[in-house]
Amino acid sequence: MTTTTDGATPAAAPAARRVLAQAAFEARMILRNGEQVLVAVVIPVLALVGLVRAPFIEIETGGDARIDLLAPGVLALAVMTASFTSQAIATAFDRRNGVLRLLATTPLGRGGLLAGKVLGVLAVEAVQVVLIAAAALVLGWRPDPVGAVLALVGLVLGTAAFTALALLVAGTLRAEAVLALANLLLLVLALGGGVILPADRLPGPFATLAAWLPSGALGDVMRGALLDGTLPLLPVLVLVGWTAGLGALAARLFRWH
């Protein structure tokens, strides 16, 4: 045990400082990992450029500029990569390697550890938004100024829903299974989950199903905010419902070791 020069045991740092330190550590671990940066930033930016510039890809924009329709969806996709895919994989391997159990016994505690993870995700998302928005502006994006503020509501709601999903799978499945499932689910939701394109422009049953998925709801909130300057009520309620359900399951089923 570490002691001071006079033999006394040093007191733990204040709770807020412990959580912020953990959040900074979580963010650095993601941003220093080349694979995570590829998934969280590079792929969304490449997807945005490809979908906007590729003339052979036909997209029904409903009269909107292609970049104005696609940029909100790509931002929503970025939220999913940081709050779900990256967080699920990192947490699952921390759990397998005993890191979660070790940190839970420190003054940080389980609550502080989870709070640090959420704040770390938000920090990574701030970096994502800046880089993706900069790329979109270069491509001619002109978002609704009022909607930019409302979009923050969508980012927070989407982060809550997908972080709850990440903790649910990371706390109940083997790390190797989480690695495969997280990447597969991200791909499926990106292609057919209504996140990049509105649900009503997807083929067949996807058009009905996607709007009720957290991915479709997040995409609709972001498009409503950044295209129209509004906060659509139904997608907001869908995200809140998913967050409540997934959060309750994660709280009940999450295993720390």
TrEMBL record:
Identify the keywords attached in UniProt to this record, alphabetized. Antibiotic resistance, Cell membrane, Membrane, Transmembrane, Transmembrane helix, Transport
User: Does the keyword Transport feature in the UniProt annotation?
Assistant: yes
Is Thylakoid found in the keyword set? Answer: no
**InterPro entries linked:** ABC2_TM (IPR013525), ABC2_TM_bact-type (IPR047817), ABC_2_transport (IPR000412), Nod_factor_ABC_transporter (IPR051784)
The membrane-topology field of this record reads:
Multi-pass membrane protein
Tell me where on the tree of life, at the top rank, the source sits. Bacteria
Tell me where in this chain the ABC transmembrane type-2 domain is found: 35-257
Give the protein family. Belongs to the ABC-2 integral membrane protein family.
The protein here is known as Transport permease protein
